[in-house]
Write a structure and sequence with these properties.
2 copies of one chain form a homodimer. The first copy, chain A, is an alpha/beta fold and about 400 residues long. Chain A folds into 2 domains: about 140 residues, Aspartate Aminotransferase, domain 1 (Alpha-Beta Complex); about 250 residues, Aspartate Aminotransferase, domain 2 (3-Layer(aba) Sandwich). The first copy, chain A, is built from 12 helices and 15 strands. The first copy, chain A, has a 7-stranded mixed beta sheet, sandwiched between helices. In chain A, strand 11 and strand 12 form a beta hairpin. Chains A and B meet through helix 2, helix 4, helix 5, strand 9 and helix 8 of A and helix 2, helix 4, helix 5, strand 9 and helix 8 of B.
């Protein structure tokens, strides 16, 4: 019998959100008349904006004609979208369309990007963290086996706790790659311009790379919070940025995102020669990927038009208002809450000694509300609970009603 | 500087079709008034059939309403599509919808599937072969460095030459994994039921796995050629099947395919325990993939309706007729030609001593026709040239006109 990749056996039993779906399904089967409100997984609920819908219809209609039909597209993405991105998002940051790679979303792009590196590279992740950063490295064999707490020897963990305001300290030892996500999932924390500049300086000084996940930049409301790492001088030599249309324009079910790899971002080849990561990713994508569907790239392009931007801003404003209500609602229960101001995520500190899966079960069984247990994001997430503003306004309001007066 | 995955440096300079695109682009720039006819890359040209177009419009319209909007779908694919596949494609083969995983296409699925296996596993591929089978294993580090001919020590090559009718012999030593593609890309060869049964028997006897790429089954015209490996008894214990909507329904730019992993197909875990590959692939997909877009799964579903099947059959009949014309056209030049009967690919034997990249350049420069050099598919492909029936009828006819009377 052929040997499997044994590193899969080092992963936690199931992917976090698959485990949540499983528990919710069981509960729903046992309580068929109870209406469950989902504020757990970061999935959006507002329909696609009109500009996106009409771009999709138009692109579909093209595919019905011999002249308009498009088969295989460029693996890197169509120039029309890469140019729209640069013009709309990276104005003044000296980013060229050649540095932009369109993909199917940040989960896919971040999950695959680690393939470009040696298995001996040491990665640093914040704790708690979006599970894909760690899991994709574990599956590749870069992390080694887990200890009793579920921590991997090959990963450098950067704790984010109430004590440090959920902002990690600079690493005490040099990693090769640092995953950063700001606005943060799951804590909702943000880095100011000065704080992010310290990370860029650290990466330059220690010759390491930053993978910057900016999937939630559209939720920033306060001044002095950078939306892109390329707002920081020197970042274009050390940072790769990951962006998504999922949480900005409701593309969770359409699937589109992009990666920015400036030409100065390089790794060390087998003969110690510097190799642009851009070239390696192009090779990876041309070999194992056939491009994001044309019709979906047209939909993404529409989000960069004036109408598209106005419409997506309105949707985001709705999710922000949900986040505010959740924040206020949990604070009214006497709990300490962070996030929710520059991020769609609300991070709730549970009463001392309460496990986050226990709170998950309590909220589900007693109130029919689904959130995400902090422990699912890593050991430092224990004792916390994540809620999201991505529900409908009505559901969010009803959830807060259900919880009113509840004492833990 | 962080060390890159050095195995990338063992790959040939660029992905085959990227190299072709590059040469064609250069030629077109130098000859702006010459109309180039592309019969090289296996990209389709017929517009999407009406049943697919209307399914797309309907699904897009749903996304504009709060009730119809769909965000994250199941990573494995929606049940409606997996059930349609089983009913339409696997009737009587004892395949359950749970064994079907919808993905973005065979290039992606086959490129990623090798991740489930130990780096020590030995893979067997036919030579010539679709480059992704080999390249994805090289990138993972399973193949070792290449020799002067571009062959990798960790890969077992099964030569397919005119001498064996382009059908490989059973391996002399046991591989862990055997990639088979029938109808074959690039040679157009097919296996009869009896011939495929010998491969299944071999895999069962030697406890190895078959990855069966059935992307071109729709082109089979002759009797006794199996369309699915599961038509062979015992295959459901040893074979994973890869299918694509690209060459059947014109989805090269829409991106959809599926993998079938029956529950009896297993690998050996670190404690020698058998582990169903289905569970491993589910874990891989839930961790690094977020599902094929809902609207595209609805489009794929439409190809399994009566109207969708009728319409796609008509498109395929057109491509088959193109293949016949190319076959006849090259035979009229005095060349030996195979394929093109049960496959969209025509495999031309070049005059002795002529290199396949030389013939590529000759055909491009003299006639403005793009084909694919056999050497791009592996050492045994040298001396051969691949053409495809996927052009328009008009282009295919014009290409044959241009070549008429040409003597090598």
């Amino acid at each position: 019998m052929s040997r499997i990749n044994a590193h899969y056996c080092d992963l936690p039993g199931s992917y976090l959100f698959a485990e949540i779906a499983h528990r919710v399904q069981e509960h729903a089967a046992a309580n068929p008349h109870k209406r469950i409100i989902r504020l757990g997984i970061g999935d959006v609920t507002a329909p696609l904006p009109p500009a996106v819908i009409s771009a999709l219809h138009k692109a579909v209609a093209e595919q019905a004609t011999p002249e308009g039909f498009r088969g295989y597209g460029p693996e890197q993405g169509y120039a029309f979208l890469r140019e729209a991105i640069v013009t709309d998002v990276y104005q003044g940051m000296n980013i060229d369309p050649d540095a932009v790679f369109v993909g199917d979303g940040t989960k896919e792009d971040l999950g695959n990007f680690q393939e470009l590196f040696d298995l001996g590279c040491r990665v640093a992740i914040t704790d708690p963290v979006y599970p894909v950063y760690a899991d994709s490295n574990v599956m590749a064999g870069r992390a080694g086996p887990p200890d009793a707490l579920g921590r991997f020897a090959g990963i450098l963990y950067l704790p984010c706790t109430a004590e440090n305001g959920f902002l990690p300290d600079l690493p005490g030892e040099r990693p090769d790659i640092i995953y950063l996500c700001y606005p943060n999932n799951p804590t909702g924390a943000v880095l100011t311009r000065g704080q992010l500049a310290r990370w860029v300086a650290y990466a330059r000084e220690h010759d390491c790379l930053i993978f910057f996940d900016a999937a939630y930049e559209a939720y920033i409301t306060e001044a002095d919070i950078p939306r892109s790492i390329y707002e920081i001088e020197g970042a274009a030599d050390v940072a790769v940025e990951f962006r998504s249309y999922s949480k900005t324009a409701g593309f969770t079910g359409l699937r589109c995102g992009f990666v920015v790899i400036p030409p100065g971002v390089r790794g060390r080849g087998p003969g110690s020669e510097p190799i642009p990561l851009r070239d390696l990713w192009l090779r990876r994508q041309t070999t194992k990927y056939n491009g994001c569907p044309y019709i979906i790239q047209r939909a993404a392009e529409a989000t960069h038009t004036a109408a598209g931007k106005r419409e997506t801003r309105a949707i985001i404003a709705g999710y922000r208002e949900n986040a505010r209500r959740i924040r206020d609602g949990f604070q009214a229960l006497g709990l300490t809450v962070s996030g929710g101001t520059n991020a769609p995520y609300i991070w709730v500190k549970l009463p001392s000694g309460m496990g986050s899966w226990d709170f998950f079960d309590l909220l589900l069984n007693r109130f029919g509300i689904v959130g995400t247990p902090g422990a699912g994001f890593g050991p430092s997430g224990e004792g916390h609970f994540r809620l999201t503003g991505f529900g409908t306004a009505a559901d969010t309001g009803e959830a807060m009603e259900r919880l009113r007066g509840f004492t833990l």
